[in-house]
Amino acid sequence: MRLSGIITQGARRVGQPEYVRAYKVAYSLDGREFTFYKDEKQDADKVFQGNVDYGTMQTNMFNPPITAQFIRIYPVMCRRACTLRFELIGCEMNVYFNTAGCSEPLGMKSHLISDQQITASSVFKTWGIDAFTWHPHYARLDKTGKTNAWTALHNGQSEWLQIDLRDQKKVTGIITQGARDFGHIQYVAAYKVAYSDNGTSWTLYRDGQTNSTKIFHGNSDNYSHKKNVFDVPFYARFVRILPVAWHNRITLRVELLGCDE
């Protein structure tokens, strides 16, 4: 779903008004890993203003909208008990993106995609030590550990991370994440996406309005998820992420979204 807002309302219990005065919102694609909606100006969890009585409806809009399958509302401040009635504002993703029912993780985080299916142009080793190799197959969303992402040997726009989906899939979106190398924050700030059916001939994803190669906004820190939905989904077996801009070193953790359709 593409969610653009929320309406909240309190209630009355035994003659006494009860309502949520302030709250946070978290969202997820899989129902397990949740991300709190952020205040872009402060880079902190957004605290939404709730109700001031039990009967009036309070509307808050999400700017930018949320793409999610699961939503959680976390009360921060309540009047008496935390009592809530609510409605979500939004639509099926296909209204905007033609991706309804096709935005499931394709297997990077879950390991449905095997290590052998993930390759890269080069690999970096911290201090040149084999034990601190940032392998391509470490590029799994939310991977933990000392070396928990893919890092390229060189910083340059010829570097790439490649995922072989084994069969042609409908790819509707991507989630990226940076990492930290012994205190050094590293991430990809912008990137291109290319796709292929044979791993040899590649097509760069294009901006539907300008027909130029689309440059996607990436991460701004080492831990947050940055999701981009493809306005026009594509069908492919192979997907490449091509870094264009980065902080410190080219470092990626990633999940692809789509379905078998």
Secondary-structure map:
Blueprint: E1 2-9, E2 11-13, E3 16-28, E4 35-36, E5 38-39, E6 44-45, E7 48-49, E8 58-67, E9 70-79, E10 85-91, E11 104-105, E12 118-120, E13 150-151, E14 161-177, E15 179-181, E16 184-196, E17 203-204, E18 216-217, E19 226-247, E20 251-259
- Total domain units: 2
The end-to-end distance, rounded to whole angstroms, is 18 Å
What would the CATH topology of the largest domain be? Jelly Rolls
Task: Please bin the fraction of helical residues.
Answer: under 10%
Specify the CATH homologous superfamily of the largest domain.
Galactose-binding domain-like
Q: Please provide the count of β strands.
A: 20
At CATH level 2, the architecture of the largest domain is: Sandwich
Q: Which whole number gives the mean pLDDT?
A: 93
Strand and helix order: EEEEEEEEEEEEEEEEEEEE
Gross morphology: elongated
Strand content: over 45%
> Briefly, what CATH class of the largest domain?
Mainly Beta
Structural class: mainly beta
User: What is the CA-atom radius of gyration, in angstroms?
Assistant: 21 Å
In words, what does this structure look like?
By secondary structure, this protein is mainly beta. Helix content is 0%, strand content 51%. The chain has no helices and 20 strands. Strands 11, 12, 13, 14, 15, 16, 17, 18, 19 and 20 form a ten-stranded antiparallel sheet that branches. A hairpin with a 4-residue loop joins strand 5 and strand 6. It is elongated and about 70 Å long. The model has no long low-confidence stretch (mean pLDDT 93). This is Milk fat globule-EGF factor 8 protein.
